[in-house]
Amino acid sequence: MWTPGRIVGETLLSLVLGLLAAASETLEGSAMSDAGIVRGVAVGLAAALLSLLRRVLPATVLLVTAAGMAEFEGLSLLVVVAAWSAGRRIEEIGKAAGTFAAAYAVSLGLSLLAGAFSLVTALAVAVPMLLVMIVVPGLVSRYWWQRRTLTDTLREYNAQLLRERAMVAGQARMRERQRIAQDMHDSLGHQLTLISVHTGALEVDRELTGRQREAVGVLREASVAAMHELREVVGLLRDGTENPGQGSAAHGVRATGEEDATVPSRGVAGVESLVAASRSVGTAVELRRSGEPRPLTPTADHAAYRVAQEGLTNAHKHAQGASITIELRYEPDALVVEVANGPVPETTAAGRSVVSGGQGLTGLGERTRLIGGMVHAGPTADGGFRLAGVLPYASPDGGAPSLARGDGGTTFVGPTGDLREQFAAGSAEEGVPVIDGNGLPKELARAMSRNTRRSGIAIGCGIAALILVLLVVLGIVAVIFLAGESEKAMIEPKQYDAVQLGRSEAEVRAKLPLGNSFLARGLDKGAPPAPKGAQCLTLLSSENGSSQGKQPVFRFCFRDGRLIEKKSFEMRS
């Protein structure tokens, strides 16, 4: 189905070719006669129709146009267009070669039969002219189309390879995640289960005091919570998708399929359970809230919980006995979760070994950056430590926040720091995006374009050089041929003056060219009447005529073996 632009272009091209063909045939006719006008209109309509059909019937249009060009010169421009179209649209190489050979032979043969060229003229002029008009456009068009097709095929093949590579990489990541999940389940799950079982048994020991039983209860609840978090992480690794903030609904499910009501929330609502757990072990924790609560995305809600959890964990590890303050501030553009602890009391034992991997803050920063937020951690003026996370709200339509894309008054996240600016819109998952033909890497697309352009220029220059050499050789041959022909049909005026009347025919002809050249053909048409019973030899003059379009001619007439007349006159060239 043609596009509107192609329809307009084809219509204009057909109109132009038809008008040019009609004008050429009309001017070729006899002084703009009625017959010439009718002939020109008919040839113009035929040219316009053939131009429209050349895409559907390329071989037929080329053959018809090449055959008609011998009789109708108005089709000369159309044959070039038809050859270009045929070279591009005839797919089989054998059919294309046969079509162009037939078109060339038909055009040359009909031109010879119509008497438009002599055999010698055909070899010198018609052969290279038809070669340029029919064969060369077809070859150039076919090369250009094949190069374009090859380039498109290579792009599709490369895109397919990239898609397959992305799928293989995704499968490898999935297998690795499943292996890690299995190892975590088998090792950590076993240890946490033992801790939970032993603390549960110790909690009912009658020899424990109330304070000890309360501490053991805290340990048991912590181990149970750790088991549920481990189950959540294992589920995320196995599923390959992350939807944090819905842990109690999506991952806090027992083997029986029922939800565990004891699993704490993994969002802002779960911060209170973290505070309660810290207070139960004797730590002074204060929870403050300010501002009007606003909805968060699941990922931001989960990140708020993790900020509070990481802040409490660090305070318990490195500032045991210090007071802790947790603030949830609903600012106009984001939720600020801040955990700050005071200085470490002097009564706290020093030198105590604390296990710390040093990856908590790093992972927390990566988590918040993925959702367009940020994390700040550092010492306070009074010798304590402060951890603060800035988390964007959900957009009004419930979608992902637009915080990191440079909106209005948001100043705590720069656009360059947002991972979403590096990928197309969508979920910020680990998977490599599938790359199609329109989304090739810039470096690869640039390299392919540069290589194809260089090779195309090289091949194109080679073809152009070959055609140029061929034309130069044909031109030299034509010049040599025309020089030889001119010696057979042309004399200088002084040679004409040196010939005297009454001399014998043999003597005169010995001093003059034979006149057996195509250049001397037709010089008798429109010439003055020759003497009765005489045989005349008509030759061209080497001088120019008195005006443009006129050619000086010398005629020598013989009768009874003697030169009886020599005459000089001008004819229209």
From TrEMBL:
EC number(s) on file: 2.7.13.3
This enzyme catalyses: ATP + protein L-histidine = ADP + protein N-phospho-L-histidine
- Which cellular component, as a GO term, is one annotated location? membrane
Q: Please, which domain of life does this record's source organism belong to?
A: Bacteria
Q: Which Pfam families match?
A: HisKA_3 (PF07730)
Alphabetical list of CDD domains matching this protein: HATPase_UhpB-NarQ-NarX-like
Q: Where is this region: Disordered?
A: 238-263
Spans traversing the lipid bilayer: 56-84, 96-117, 123-145, 456-483
Q: Give GO terms: molecular function aspect only.
A: ATP binding; phosphorelay sensor kinase activity; protein dimerization activity
Domain Signal transduction histidine kinase subgroup 3 dimerisation and phosphoacceptor intervals? 176-240
**Which keywords accompany this UniProt record?**
ATP-binding, Kinase, Membrane, Nucleotide-binding, Phosphoprotein, Transferase, Transmembrane, Transmembrane helix, Two-component regulatory system
Q: What's the name of the protein?
A: histidine kinase
Q: Which organism is it from?
A: Streptomyces gilvosporeus
